[in-house]
Amino acid sequence: MPGKSSQSMIVTPQPEATEAGHDILCAGGNAVDAAIATAFVQGVVDPLMCGIAGFGSMAVFDPASDTHEYIDFHAPAPGAATDDMWADLIEGEARDGYGFILKGRLNDIGYQSICVPASLRAYACAHERHGSMPWAELIQHAIGWARSGWTVRPHVHEFWSQPSKMGRVANFERIAHTPASRALYCREDGSPKQVGDRVVNPDLADTLSTIAADGADAFYTGAIARRIVEDMAAHGGLVSAEDLATYAAKINPPVESRYRDWTVTSNQPPGGGLMLAQMLNILAHFDLTAMGHNSADYVRTVAEAMKYATIDKDRFIGDPDFVDVPADRLLSEEYAADLAERIRRGEKADVPRFDPAAQCSDTTQISIVDGNGMCVSMTHSLGMPSGVVTEGLGFMYNGCMGVFDPRPGLAGSIAPGKARFSSVCPSIVFRDGRPCLVIGAPGATQIAMGVLQATLNVLDFGLSMAEAVARPRFSATSNAIDVVNRIPRSVTEDLERQGYEVIRDPRSFGIAWVHGIRITEGGLDGGADPATDGMALP
């Protein structure tokens, strides 16, 4: 394992969060300390993307203790949920597979869309297992930003202003859903705050100060918990005092797979690591470099691997406490070889969807390597944010009920205590036992697709981290291939001649927002996705 180095690196989508993590590393904290401090700040300055009432997955690799584990915190359905509670309200399924559209939008916005908040308990678990600095110190940056205020950045404003897509609730509706959220994030006329406007959140500062003093228990069993439960009961929410008190993050070993000369590690179901590993297993059967980066042949081959992995995800991958996930079969060499041969023959996989829709992204990422070689990759989220802010508490709750399948009897169906599949796949890649890539991304169902392509860009094409996350991307989570506007039209015209539907996004960047760190003999190389406002700091 590598010895101690003076080098460290942090990459996130928000400058304020990157600076907070950098300050913790400079103060002597380790990568986990920095990740926790960064996550708290992200919940303040990107409040629809993540927060203490969200969910996610954290990879930790510590060469000093020979520890490699995942702290998984997928928000479970409340105990009051039932498998058929919304079965008669279904209007459609998102084209990309990210949730269902219901009459009344009960699963998409408001109190019934909220699953059990998981993130704060996971931060505390990570600190207990790996932290080196006092808990309270890790929250001070976030308290400062909440109390003194922060400035709306371009990426935040774009996200808040997004219109409705295929019946989904528009984000400008989410930020105005409750009086408390509207007061925080809207102008006097009810429109989203604009770039340069200030957001001051003294209620969140007070909530975080309580958590700093009393720990996560204040949120799950103490004074904050009582206010949460009272608000849920008053507005028809499903989350109960028992749900909060009994929630705990899970400690899991990584999913491991081989890709050429590398060992790729990612998270267990219901995270997206198995999906990422399956795609890499298939693509190991092709000479991608010879095809040429983002050529028509390359896009077709990778897109078909994405489609097969999506089909299997929809059929088989769910919460392993409720679903028997056939991981060994999905990752078997025989299965990968069979799917690769189908792709080589020109077969087109068919991805069934209930109805068409569009993409959705409500997540954020942290990638860190510290001077002792400890690596952390954490992806955390609110899912589709619920729009609910309890008066006096200052944070928004997750909207994770929206991604459950309202049809009973399926891998993704609703059940009390069950967590729904999430594409989050914070990953660490090794070569000869040494980490060489720390990577992850926000981006809803597109996360694994973005991480896949940036990983291929580094491993197969030898790109720097900054180059790898900046190259134009595509995705196939349905029978169509989505591409960003920088994929040449000559490529998409070739795909169309082969019978593919190609959907061109007007934006130049997209298909997840990948952030990563490449570890080389010459040092650390960080890359923040240029689609965000983020940055890398050594």
Explain this structure:
This protein has 538 residues and is α+β, with helices and mostly antiparallel strands. It has 2 domains: 9-251 and 359-403, no CATH class; 255-357 and 426-519, Serum Albumin, Chain A, Domain 1 (Orthogonal Bundle). The chain is 34% helix and 17% strand. The strands form 5 sheets. A 7-stranded antiparallel beta sheet has the order 8-3-2-12-11-1-20, with helices on one face. Strands 9-10-13-14-18-19 form a 6-stranded antiparallel beta sheet. A 3-stranded mixed beta sheet has the order 15-16-17, covered by helices on one side. α19 links the parallel β16 and β17 (501-504). α4 (140-148) runs antiparallel to α8 and α12 crosses α16 (333-344). The protein starts with 8 loop residues before the first strand and ends with a strand.
Strand arrangement within the widest β-sheet reads 8-3-2-12-11-1-20
Low-confidence stretches: 1-6, 354-361
Number of helices: 19
Number of strands: 20
Task: Please tell me the overall pLDDT.
Answer: 93
Radius of gyration: 21 Å
Number of domains: 2
What separation lies between the terminal Cα atoms?
A: 21 Å
The fraction of residues assigned to DSSP E strands is 15-25%
Quaternary assembly: single chain
Shape: globular
Largest sheet: 7 strands, antiparallel
Task: Give the fraction of residues assigned to helices.
Answer: 25-40%
> Helices and strands: which structural class?
alpha+beta
